[in-house]
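Exercise 7.
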Amino acid sequence: MAAPHATTGSDRPPRDSSGGGWRAFLGFTTPGLCWEFLRRNPAYREHFGDLARGMDVLDHRWGLSVPADPDLSADGARVVWRADVAPGLVVAMERRAFGRPKALPPTMLEPVVGEDGLHIRFPSGLQVQLRGEATPAGPLVVVLAYDADFNLRVRAVDALRRAALTDEPPRSRLSAEQKARLARSLFALDAAQESQSYREIAAGLFGEDEIDASGFKTSSLRDVTIRLVRRGRSLMAGGYLKLLKAGF
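Solution. The predicted structure, written as tokens, is:
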């Protein structure tokens, strides 16, 4: 495993000083956003450094099936989430002959060997977990636990079915407003980690023209900015797992 880089944001989108730079994050998938929050977590970055030096074993609290380099994007780091923490994202499959075998949808991404089996990742973030002696060539059956997350698992299976028919990513369960809030929270988190003031963060989020220098301390924009910073820190500290659970 390669040692982690010294920088903390080598693969982040650029910021737009005129306001609205957060829109660069709108193109991320939901699992991609989850990784963006996790890879900014100082505790995870330190843990990855220990892993790279062979001084520790992967901590399950992160939700990962294999260590991922926090200096890389989700695709570059080949991020693989554990099936138990992402039932709306991971389709579990086993080797078994049943009916007429059907090949898995093609993907250019290489399979990743994780702690809970071989994972095949799709550009959308969808994962197929191959258990036991299962191989991509099949024959395969889907394993669906009938539990509290059953509906999420069915949704992931439907995403796999659609992946065989179209290159379009699964439809997000998040509204445009929810996605925008997540993007703003990630942007605000970056700025806060760079020790920017709330006024500077607000200018980056909403534009300098929207900031009244004389009244910012008592303005509603300051309150919104503070909430976005807190939300970003909460997501980074583990809140992304709740977002991740439901998948897309």
